[in-house]
User: Fold this.
Amino acid sequence: MDALASRRSTRVFTPKALRTVSSSQTGSQTGSPTPRTQSPQPRSMQEPMLVTTWDTTMPVVAIGQSQTGELHVLDAQAPISQRHAVVFGMQANDTLVFQGICDICVLKGTVRVYEHESSGQWDRVYSPVSHPLVSLRAQTQTKDEAERDAEAQHMYELWATSHNECEVVVAVRAVDCGLEHLGRVAPAYASLFTGSVAADSEQLVQAIGVPGMTPMRTVNAGVQVLQTPEDWAQALDQASTMPQRLDDEFEPIAPVYAVAGAQGQGKSTFSRMLVNRLVARFGRVFYMETDLGQSEFAAPGALSLTLVSAPVLGPPFTHTGRTEAYHAAYMGVVTPKNDPDRYAACVLRLAQVYRDHVRSERARGSPAVPMVVNTQGWTRGLGLDLLYALCQSVCPTHFVQAYDPATSDASLVDFATVEGCDPQVLWITGMSSDRMQGGDAGDAGESGRRVQKLAAHDMRTLSLLSLMYSAWTAQGVATWNMHKPLAARTPVRVPICDLVFWMGEEDVPPSQVLRAVNGTLVGVVCVARAPGAGAHEWSRDEIRGLYADGVSDQAAAALSEPGARMLLRSHVRARMGDDAGPVLVPQIVYGMPSLTATTFLTHALVRSIDVRSGHVHLVIPPQSPAVDSPMYRVVGIVKGPGPSAFGVDVPVQAMLDGGFAERAMGAS
Assistant:
């Protein structure tokens, strides 16, 4: 740490000793949380717990769809496989827990899911058993009835012909998005969305089940159900209703929520709920991801700032890479322990981008967009120092701390020592064992449904597989193609001279760079849409000019961080002589991309490098056709460290998919 401190020339990151807040500090700003009633202890592993209160005597209409797309009412005894959707009534406070994937449209009343009030529009909900199962809770109408689309309106008309007395009417539609076939690529995750049906749930499944969605009357040992504890609800209600603070010019200050706590305390789940509440109130919200190993919207290995305008209704791997980050910084590792300076600089850069956006919105007279910051779960030693640096960079207006009452109730951050930062501190109890609906994960209950307790590396694998196998429909709807191996996909052919190869801290000789990059997972970097104050803003014509004769020496220097070592193409051309012909080599930079001039776009697999023709073949996840493609802004790739140095790499399941590796080894 002393050596690290001596190398720093800025105040981006200042290590401090581990601090605790004295017991004499009280109030909303510092000190311990107020005592609260503890949650009940976990129930017996043999005793199933009732989680769905919906009554099977409520009216239900099963709907089928013909080959021409016409909807019609099915007989009550028709097989579930023939159902396109079901429409059923609910009473206020009825709950419905399910496993699987489905579209939900509330035709009458309101249903709360992930703290999002669904009403009138189709929402796709993901409920894998690896995460707390989604719970739908019916509510009476709390807002004006939303306009339904044509299909939802037709379903409501079919329902209304025989029923109309229910407070809440819900339509559940079967979907085939491709993610349910994840087990074809990774058999270990085959049961995330499907499982056996318990005897006490058979009647429920027969009543309202659709293909791909299995309702559950009870849950067995190890199965968690998504709940909103009382103290969580209070914090979320405050975010939804509390008036905004005013600055010195009596302008509203955009709220900035930093969510902190140790690993496994439910920070990501709470952040997801908080995003949904803020989207409902403000329409848009920025999400800053600072956990390199457990990212929400970006793939692992990157810090990102994403503008969210739709509810988030699933765990991270169900929406990884689906929204282009407003700005992102690539590190290529799953922990900042080996380069805390760059990590702190990345956080500071994202905070600056957010503040620049707030200023520009205010100048146009638009309301400022709030931000949610999800922090990493490393809260001791160097991790705590990084949390202090984050608070100094972000300056949150609200600091939400998840804690375990059984182990600690001390504040992580003493804001009296953080200059210019005086947030309101909100305490929430963590999702520890007393929140679980069952015993230890991994146990099998009476139904034989086995619960998978996934480790951090499993979560990263799911996110990377979801990203690499993602696809889009022509209408811009997110899907997945799990039936086409990566090795069978057509790569993008990019001239080597049109790219900058950032090698980070890898000490690879220039003659071996292409071999070191071939077959690896790299970060794709493009010109930033939001350059820093005073930085050059690249126009579309200037970006096109980069590819006229390859990325120039000046452009490579401008797109790299200061102090990076470079092997410029002009030096290679000078050593080879004028008669050598075109120099088919990239601009090689031993360093990282500039945080102000570039932004991380996505991961890509270097399928092969054709040295003779001078092209790199990249397997890049497809970008949404609904937005302007960012591919024209791509300027280079970043080679991160290997797995032995906590680097992000291609999941082994993707390598083995399709049997190509097995056949290659057999042929040898």
